[in-house]
Amino acid sequence: MKELPILTYKGYRGILRYNTSDRIRVYGKICPPEDPDTPLKNWEFAADNLEEACERFNSMVEKIIEFRQFREETEQWKRVTDYESVRCVLDILPDRFSERLKNGQFDKNLLHEVKGDCYAVPLFYVTKAWDVLLKGKMEPLDYKIGPEEEMENCTEEDIAEFLKDNEASRSRGEAIRDNDRIKKLWKDYFDIDIDKLSVDFCKFNKHLPPRVSMQKYKEYFWDPINGINHWMLDRINTPECIRLTHIDVSSLMELTSQGVRWRKGKLIFYYNL
Fold first, then answer.
1. Of 28, 171, 209, 248, which is the most exposed, with the fewest CB atoms less than 10 Å away?
2. Which residues contact 239 (CB under 8 A, 6 or more apart)?
3. Closest CA relative to residue 82, chosen from 61, 63, 103, 68
């Protein structure tokens, strides 16, 4: 077998080997610039030949750089943001949010804007967004958050089965009640009436057609791993398991924009993918 070279790209090294148990395919590991002799965990790749290995190595390096940049941007955002209050409202955790308000831990700058990504909006827009989404039709995503809307004559047993099957800790109905409690906190502490608040969520459309191509829309909303239709909705049923990043508030604005457009018939052809 031909000796395999060490690949290099943007300071990263690719260590290759033949895997004789897999049709003598080329397997590779990636070492970062700061530790060129120690491969990164969970960033291995495989290819049928050397040319393909080079392509996959370069592609994965780009993903690693993007991931590291994203992580650093999130850490920088956390250093200058009352992110725990953001988490409480975004994950619909009224008890924790109430505690922060009582203890004077809430940064009132969040009443004006939550910085971090495409949109800088007041934190109470998050509560309004959940109110809009949870109390209206979620088709074609309703199945992801519970059977209440999907099943006619839904019973408590149906909900319990959904929670068990999905290892979830909160039903859609419970999330609605928790969000209503946060609405009351906004009213009690800051005289902000979420029910009377009018927000044009359709304007949050940076990643929606026709502003972007169908391919870009699919990647942003429907990707099985990174699509916001998947990981943003997990906050409803499993809030304790969800990471917090600097893009989450903006992502919820776009998720709500998508939902409102569905209901208005403005996105009817775009979810049949």
1. 209
2. 91, 92, 93, 169, 170
3. 103
Residue spans of beta strands (DSSP E) within the chain: 7-9, 12-19, 25-31, 45-47
Cα dihedral across residues 139, 173, 256, 117: positive or negative: negative
Distance between alpha carbon 92 and the CA centroid of its chain, in Å? 15
Return the HEC string of 6-66.
Answer: CEEECCEEEEEEEECCCCCEEEEEEECCCCCCCCCCCCCEEECCHHHHHHHHHHHHHHHHH
Residue holding tokens 């928790």?
178
Residue 70 DSSP symbol: H
Rounded Cα distance, 84 and 90, in Å: 10
Report whether 118 contacts 206 (CB < 8 A): yes
Helices 172-190 and 94-102 pack at an angle, to 10 degrees, of 20
* pLDDT tens-digit map of 208-255: 999 999 899 999 999 888 899 988 999 999 988 778 999 999 999 999
Q: How many CB atoms lie within 10 A of CB 105?
A: 12
CB 197 within 8 A of CB 255: no
Instruction: Render pLDDT for 8-24 as a digit per residue (tens, 0 to 9).
Output: 999 999 999 999 999 99
Helix (H) or strand (E) holding 217: helix 214-222
pTM, two decimal places:
0.88
Single-letter amino acid code for the residue at 64: I
Q: How many residues does the chain have?
A: 273
First to last CA, the chain: 44
**Element spanning 111, H or E:** none
